[in-house]
Write a structure and sequence with these properties.
alpha+beta, Jelly Rolls, Arc Repressor Mutant, subunit A, 2 domains, 5-stranded antiparallel β-sheet, 41% helix
């Protein structure tokens, strides 16, 4: 356990760690892992452990000068506590923890968390974190949290493949998404971020918005501008920085989803026209023409070919 506590100290912050039922202290094997990705303004720690309780106590606080926020995202059910909140967390739920105040995390079964560690000073100009936010459950379906964790998951596939210097830029982008997540939780309103949110972070959020509103026929560059409280020109610049345009991304996403549905044998009961409507194209002829321009087959021909979209 001393080795495990040392790993937590080096990768997150100094914590007391106690196995549930004292299994490891009784001489039995103890399983745990810690993976760290340092992105400059933000670090990400993937932590897995046998049933345990970890706590930031007055003793550990007094022994360090650390001044961090930790967004702990549960990958398995667990409990947490800080300030006035004791929280039951399901998979995908998150809590914000302040390492200058006592907190704890516990699980009866194997515990797995992804923790984003950010110096508190990184928030001073963008967000005032109210005490009531600390330890409060942030639901897994929070739109900004969902985008943030999708970006973290993509990074986790091969963090060693990042080109030199890219980690710093990604760290700033993830910090912006984290601030957006917290602001949405704190205010109870979607945080559009406006033009103050970095373009890469905005691109991720706008792309997520398109995927969630794909069935809406009127989805357009103007829709995105209104939803995010920015100009049409700004939306175009955000997508241009990502190597595309809003209209092209909407069209390609619609065609990609239609292709997926048409290639799924479980969806064969749905008519081609219904598939078109499900991706926001109400006119069957327009759907067929657009699909053929993209894949060199009509929707009906593609379905009959038996091809499965990967």
């Amino acid at each position: 356990m001393d080795t495990w506590r040392g790993m937590l100290r080096d990768c997150i912050v100094e914590l007391d760690a106690t196995p549930v039922d004292g299994a490891a202290d009784g001489g039995q094997d103890y399983t745990g892992w810690v993976y760290l990705v340092d992105l400059g303004p933000l670090s990400i720690t993937d932590v897995g452990t046998d049933p345990a309780r970890v706590a930031r106590t007055a003793r550990t606080i007094g022994r360090s000068q650390d001044d961090f926020y930790h967004l702990s995202v549960a990958q398995r059910p667990c409990w947490s506590g800080q300030a006035e909140h004791e929280t039951r967390m399901g998979a995908g739920d998150a809590v914000l923890l302040d390492c200058t105040m006592p907190f704890w995390l516990a699980a009866d079964g194997f515990a797995h968390h992804v923790v984003l560690n950010v110096p508190k000073a990184a928030f001073t100009r963008t967000l005032h974190v109210e005490r009531d936010l600390l330890g409060r459950r942030i639901a897994a379906d929070n739109p900004a949290l969902r985008v943030l964790m999708a970006a973290v998951a993509e990074l986790g596939k091969d963090p060693g493949a990042l080109p030199p210097g890219a980690g710093l830029e990604i760290g700033h982008t993830l910090t912006e998404l984290l601030v957006s997540t917290l602001r949405m939780t704190q205010t109870g309103r979607p945080d559009t971020g406006g033009a103050n949110l970095g373009r890469h972070a905005q691109l991720l959020r706008m792309q997520d918005f398109v995927r969630r509103h794909l069935a809406e026929p009127d989805l357009s560059t103007k829709t995105l501008a209104a939803a995010f409280d920015v100009s049409v020109r700004y939306v175009e610049l955000v997508f241009r920085d990502g190597g595309s345009s809003p209209s092209r991304f909407i069209r390609d996403t619609r065609m990609g989803e239609a292709r997926r549905i048409l290639g799924d044998p479980r969806q064969r009961h749905r008519s081609v026209a219904a598939v078109g409507r499900s991706v926001g194209i109400e006119n069957a002829s327009v759907f067929a023409r657009t699909f053929r321009a993209r894949y060199d087959l009509t929707p009906r021909e593609y379905r009959q070919s038996g091809t499965r979209a990967s």
